[in-house]
Amino acid sequence: MSTTKNVNILELAKGAIAEQIDIEVAKAMANIVDPNTDAKTARKLTITLTLKPDENRETISISAQAKAALAPIKPISTTLMVGIDRDGKPVAVEPTKQDPNQMQIFGESEPTNVVKMRHNA
Asked: For the segment 51-68, what is each residue's pLDDT rounded down to a tens digit?
């Protein structure tokens, strides 16, 4: 006895099409909640279904691909102060960000970041 069942196109290939879409939607959701991305950037999900019939139009090969277009990571910026050291070589220092409203009790402060530079002899 033969039975038939009406299915949605997303259920074909044992549900692999729907699974691929779910994976890409999860990527978009993770990108949305990532604080390193712009909150207002729209994320897009593109689903491409390709239907290719054979020469006799008796069979159709179906290919499906889902792809999420995500928001890029926001650029990170900092400031460098540049000068010349005692040996006449250039030096760059990232200033320590100290909150002017924060009092230092024990003289503790963040270390100063000095950029390593290669000097030609």
From this structure: 999 999 999 999 999 999
Paired tokens of 71: 């928001």
Spatial distance between the Cα atoms of 9 and 15, rounded to a whole number of angstroms: 9
* Least reliable range by pLDDT among 39-43, 48-52, 86-90, 111-115: 111-115
CB atoms within 10 A of CB 17: 21
Question: pTM of the prediction?
Answer: 0.67
Three-state DSSP string of the chain: CCCCCCCCHHHCHHHHHHHHHHHHHHHHHHHHHCCCECCCCCCEEEEEEEEEECCCCCCEEEEEEEEEECCCECCCCCCCEEEECCCCCEEEEECCCCCCCCCCCCCCCCCCEEECCCCCC
CB atoms within 10 A of CB 66: 19
